[in-house]
Every structure is written in structure tokens, then in C-alpha cells.
From TrEMBL:
PANTHER family: HYDROXYMETHYLPYRIMIDINE_PHOSPHOMETHYLPYRIMIDINE KINASE THI20-RELATED, PHOSPHOMETHYLPYRIMIDINE KINASE. This is Uncharacterized protein. Keywords: ATP-binding, Chloroplast, Kinase, Magnesium, Metal-binding, Multifunctional enzyme, Nucleotide-binding, Plastid, Thiamine biosynthesis, Transferase, Transit peptide. GO terms for cellular component: chloroplast. InterPro entries: Aldolase_TIM (IPR013785), HMP/HMP-P_kinase_dom (IPR004399), PM/HMP-P_kinase-1 (IPR013749), Ribokinase-like (IPR029056), ThiamineP_synth_sf (IPR036206), ThiamineP_synth_TenI (IPR022998), TMP_synthase (IPR034291). Residues 313-498 form the Thiamine phosphate synthase/TenI domain. Residues 40-283 form the Pyridoxamine kinase/Phosphomethylpyrimidine kinase domain. It catalyses: 2-(2-carboxy-4-methylthiazol-5-yl)ethyl phosphate + 4-amino-2-methyl-5-(diphosphooxymethyl)pyrimidine + 2 H(+) = thiamine phosphate + CO2 + diphosphate; 4-methyl-5-(2-phosphooxyethyl)-thiazole + 4-amino-2-methyl-5-(diphosphooxymethyl)pyrimidine + H(+) = thiamine phosphate + diphosphate; 2-[(2R,5Z)-2-carboxy-4-methylthiazol-5(2H)-ylidene]ethyl phosphate + 4-amino-2-methyl-5-(diphosphooxymethyl)pyrimidine + 2 H(+) = thiamine phosphate + CO2 + diphosphate; 4-amino-5-hydroxymethyl-2-methylpyrimidine + ATP = 4-amino-2-methyl-5-(phosphooxymethyl)pyrimidine + ADP + H(+). It is found in: Plastid, Chloroplast. GO terms for biological process: thiamine biosynthetic process; thiamine diphosphate biosynthetic process. Its main location: plastid.
Length: 522
């Protein structure tokens, strides 16, 4: 297992497709997931959701069906369990043939079905197991009764890499533990972790009275609260299956667990937002659109895997400063992340392309394992070659609409804007956020016009996109920036305040604390 929290390494008896590639020419490895779940005739949840998510995330998905439900947007009318022997036939069939990176389980409606699953997983080991302990549909119908609780607790959970119960399921697994607050979710996650899974995600979609939709992630040491504003919509049927399948898909592509979970949360959030007004079926719980990312609408970039809150502490690397302090770019990035940086931009004006690419690849690995976004300044070629999360471009770099067509809908694009007109254009062209400044004078960028706090406020007011402030910002003035009264100002970007310093880690921690405190005061 990767010490930074990556998924576990391949077992010795794992037949690697990479090995196959060396013997067969023109073979391309495709990440593969197997879902073991129930069919939803309404196709919003279950197997059907899993297949759609994996397709949307570029991963192949095979399906073993455990039960067939008669289900629509009004609820579940009937459930038909498949015989365990036949579930086993399906499992053997695909596990003996395909080379799955990840197995994801959904509805496992009987002890016997869990037994055959466990037997097949021991016969055919896989790299990671995602367990969504489905028990009750959002409409309240029981999909797996309490008889499965003991085999879940004693045998399935201990071999899971991650479990993703909703609050009701977490409570049932813990023998009726009351979960009414985020603090209760944290306690539940900790207790569930003691049952053996490597990671726990307690989903808060059904937590009463919350304006945010909060999920609690626990890795055995640290908690992360993943928050997003609750989308006001009836179309939430299948959010749980979607989240777990997206985690499985991202793991299959090689993400670390935290990274996979963050991407999955954004994916659900974006899908709900994109589909909030669609009308399918006449009941209370409609399905949503998993393929929002493919829509040609120029605003579809809005739906990329990007959380504006990640702009909070935005660290921009600078090779000159790293040289001065005798640090590698990788060490600088590591320290910034450990100190609380939420997004990294590599800005290398002088490096040779090949050298920059190698450094960028190493930084991508570090960022992925910490669930932190990595952007490349200006160099679309490097961003593509190292599979960064996106790019940041200036007004004299390639135009944003062209960058979008080169990078596709999933990548994040940021653009520097000094004026309301530029901010409007960035939005029209499909950017995800804007960087605005220089707010204060800075030595990092020569001949850069300073716009001041007033200029920043003007740009924020005009911008439909989230904004990160940049230029001469540090611990002493970050608070004044965060308090300009602009709800779309999500954070500050810094260069010297972190990297032209003796200890990057200490400065990052201090700045993070300052930002947190100034946010609280707003
Ligand atoms: N209205 C909403 N707005 C934003 N996010 C939501 C909303 N409802 C659910 N989510 C998110 O969807 C994911 C699934 O959570 P949820 O608690 O709904 O799971 P679930 O009950 O297992 O889902 P289902 O049974 O409908 O498949 C979580 O990340 C949760 O935060
Ligand atoms: C088949 C199936 N699996 C899972 C869920 C949970 O949403 C559902 N409603 N139906
Ligand atoms: Mg729900």
C-alpha cells in the first residue's frame, strides 16, 4: 500500500494486463470495474446507474445481478432474488475471464449471496473492493434485511477497501446507533472503521435539516468533511450507487482513495445540479443525468470535476524561488500540501520541457494521493502529457475556448482577469474559475498592473465564476482580501508567501489558519 493513502498494491497472484501488453502488440489496457448489484427497472439506481457512471468516467464495467426489482420513481413495488448458485455462475464467468481493477458491491440481499461473493473473491483476488452496503431505498423500501448484518460486519466489511453507508445504513450496521448530526457521523465512521474496512465514507444525503450535503470520510487517523450545497431537486434517486461506482471507477484509473472520493462527490453534485429541473416519471424520486459531461452546451465546463472551495489556499510554484532556497519542486509542493494548500499550480517559466514534464508527473502523483488538484500554468502540452487536472492561462496565452476544445470537458481551466469584461469572456468561453489581480504590488511578476481591493471587488461582482485573488498576498493582508464581501471569492493564490520562505510547511500552516479565521468572521 502506498504510504500516502493509495490503493493497495497488486497481490502476487494477480495477472497483470501490463504483462500481457509486453507479449501482445497493440493491446491497450482499459480500466475495468465489476459491479455486483441489483437491477432497477427505472434505471436510476442499481446496476443501471453503475454502468452509466463507469461509462461516463471512461471505465469498462461488467455486471453481476443479484436481484431484480420492479422499481420506478414512486418506489419499489417488488423484489425478486436470483438464486445464489446463479449469482455464483455469473461471478465465476466474468471473474475467470476479465481482469478487474475494482469490484463494487451494491444490493446483496441475502446471506447466501454474500457467501458466494466471498467465495469467488477468494478464488479470484481483485485489487480493491468498494462496498456500498445497500439496505433501504431512498423511498424507504427494504432491499436487504437485518439478516445480512452479521455477515456484513464479520466477513464483508473487514475485506473492504472502502464502505459507503448512508446514515440509516451506518446506524443499522452499528446496531441502531443514533446519527443526527455531523458529529454523530464522525463517531459512526470511527466505529465502522474498527470493523475492518480501510476507509469509511458515511454519506449525509439523508441527514435531516442540513443546508449542505456533508459526507464524512475517515482513513483510520484523520477525518475529512466533504461538503457541497444541497441541490434543491426531486431527482436524487441513485445518488448512493452513483457515488460508490464513481469511487470504483476512479480507483480503477489509479487514483488514491481520497482523490477518488472527492471526484465522486463532485460528480454526484454536478450531475444533480445539471439535472435538477429534468422531469422523468411522475413520482417523488426522479433519476438524474450521468452524462452531463458530454453535453455540448458551452457551460458544460461548469460541470467539470471542480469544487470552487478548492481555491481556498492556492499555491503557485516558482522555480527561481526553489533554486534560491535549494529545494526541488517536488519537495516544495509536498510541503505546501502538508501545510494545507488545497490546489497547486506549477508555474515554470524557464525549465526545459522534458525536465518540466518529469517534475510535473511526480507532482501529479503527490497531489492525487492527497486529493489535491494540480494545474499547469500556460503549458497545455505538459498538462496533457502528465494528465494534470487542468491549466491556468493568462490573457496573452491561448484563448480559453481553444484550450477547452484541446483539453475536453473534464479538465479545469482557470484564467487571469483584471477587468469585468475579461471575467465575462472567461465565463462565456467555458473557464471554471478566474484568478484576479495583482491585488497588491509584487516582485514575482514584473510590470503587472495592480488592481487593488476595489478592482478585485469589481471583478468579483461581475464574475459568474468563482474567483481566487492573486498578487502580493501573504499572512499580513490575506484577511483584508477575504473580507471584501464577495461570495464568489473563494480563496487566495500565493507564490512568495509560501515559496520565498525558509520553511514552506510552517508558512502554509500559518496562512491556512489565517484564512480559516478570516472566513469564520465573515
Ligand atoms: N440534494 C442533494 N444535493 C447534493 N448532494 C446530495 C443530495 N442528496 C444526496 N447527495 C449526495 O449524494 C451522495 C449519496 O448520498 P445519499 O446519502 O443520498 O446516499 P443513499 O441514500 O445511499 O442514496 P440512494 O439510496 O438514493 O442511492 C452523497 O455524496 C450525498 O452527499
Ligand atoms: C437495485 C437497487 N439498488 C440500490 C438502490 C439504492 O438506491 C436501489 N434503489 N435499487
Ligand atoms: Mg439518499
Amino acid at each position: 500500500m502506498n504510504s500516502l493513502g493509495g490503493i493497495r498494491s497488486w497481490p502476487a497472484n494477480w495477472r497483470s494486463t501490463t504483462a500481457l501488453m509486453t507479449t501482445t502488440e497493440n493491446v491497450r489496457k482499459v480500466p475495468q470495474v465489476l459491479t455486483v448489484a441489483g437491477s432497477d427497472s427505472g434505471a436510476g439506481a442499481g446496476i443501471q446507474a453503475d454502468l452509466k457512471v463507469c461509462a461516463a468516467r471512461g471505465v469498462y464495467c461488467a455486471s453481476v445481478i443479484t436481484a431484480v426489482t420492479a422499481q420506478n420513481t414512486r418506489g419499489v413495488q417488488s423484489v425478486h432474488l436470483l438464486p445464489p448458485e446463479f449469482v455464483s455462475e455469473q461471478l465465476k464467468s466474468v471473474l475467470s475471464d476479465f481482469e478487474f481493477d475494482v469490484v463494487k458491491t451494491g444490493m446483496l440481499p441475502s446471506t447466501e449471496i454474500v457467501e458466494v461473493l466471498l467465495q469467488n473473491l477468494s478464488d479470484f483476488p481483485v485489487r480493491a473492493l468498494v462496498v456500498d452496503p445497500v439496505m433501504v431505498s431512498t423511498s424507504g423500501h427494504v432491499l436487504a434485511g437485518s439478516s445480512i448484518l452479521s455477515i456484513f460486519r464479520e466477513r464483508l466489511l473487514p475485506i473492504a477497501d472502502i464502505i459507503t453507508p448512508n446514515v440509516k445504513e451506518a446506524s443499522a450496521l452499528l446496531g441502531g446507533f443514533r446519527i443526527e448530526t455531523v458529529a454523530d457521523m464522525r463517531s459512526a465512521a470511527k466505529l465502522l472503521h474498527e470493523m475492518g474496512p480501510r476507509f469509511v465514507l458515511v454519506k449525509g444525503g439523508d441527514l435531516p435539516d442540513s443546508s449542505n450535503s456533508v459526507d464524512v470520510y475517515f482513513d483510520g487517523k484523520e477525518f475529512h468533511e466533504l461538503r457541497s450545497p444541497r441541490v434543491a431537486t426531486r431527482n436524487t434517486h441513485g445518488t448512493g450507487c452513483t457515488l460508490a461506482s464513481c469511487i470504483a471507477a476512479e480507483l480503477a484509473k489509479g487514483s488514491s482513495m481520497l482523490s477518488a472520493v472527492k471526484v465522486a462527490k463532485r460528480f454526484v453534485d454536478n450531475a444533480l445540479d445539471y439535472s435538477k429541473d429534468i422531469a422523468i416519471g411522475s413520482g417523488m424520486q426522479g433519476p438524474f443525468d450521468h452524462f452531463f459531461g458530454l453535453k455540448k452546451d458551452p457551460q458544460s465546463s461548469r460541470c467539470s470535476i471542480f469544487n470552487p472551495d478548492d481555491l481556498f489556499l492556492y499555491a503557485v510554484s516558482d522555480s527561481r524561488m526553489n533554486r534560491k532556497w535549494n529545494r526541488s519542486i517536488v519537495d516544495a509542493v509536498k510541503a505546501a500540501i502538508e501545510g494545507g494548500a488545497t490546489i497547486i499550480q506549477l508555474r515554470e517559466k524557464e525549465a526545459e520541457t522534458r525536465e518540466f514534464l518529469e517534475e510535473a508527473k511526480a507532482c501529479v502523483d503527490i497531489c492525487r494521493s492527497h486529493g489535491v488538484i494540480l494545474l499547469i500554468n500556460d503549458r497545455i502540452d505538459i498538462a496533457l502529457a502528465c494528465n494534470a487536472d487542468g491549466v491556468h492561462v493568462g490573457q496573452s496565452d491561448l484563448p480559453v475556448d481553444l484550450v477547452r476544445s484541446l483539453l475536453g470537458p473534464d479538465k479545469i481551466i482557470g484564467v487571469s482577469c483584471k477587468t469585468p469584461e475579461q471575467a465575462h469572456q472567461a465565463w462565456k468561453d467555458g473557464a471554471d474559475y478566474i484568478g484576479s489581480g495583482g491585488v497588491f504590488p509584487t516582485n514575482t511578476k514584473a510590470n503587472n498592473r495592480t488592481i487593488g481591493l476595489d478592482g478585485l471587488k469589481e471583478v468579483c461582482d461581475a464574475s459568474k465564476l468563482p474567483v481566487v485573488a492573486i498578487g502580493g498576498i501573504g499572512i499580513s493582508n490575506a484577511e483584508s482580501v477575504m473580507q471584501i464581501d464577495a461570495p464568489n471569492l473563494k480563496g487566495v493564490a500565493v507564490v512568495s508567501a509560501l515559496f520565498d520562505q525558509d520553511c514552506v510547511l510552517t508558512q502554509a500552516k500559518k496562512l491556512h489558519k489565517t484564512l480559516k479565521e478570516s472566513k469564520r468572521e465573515i
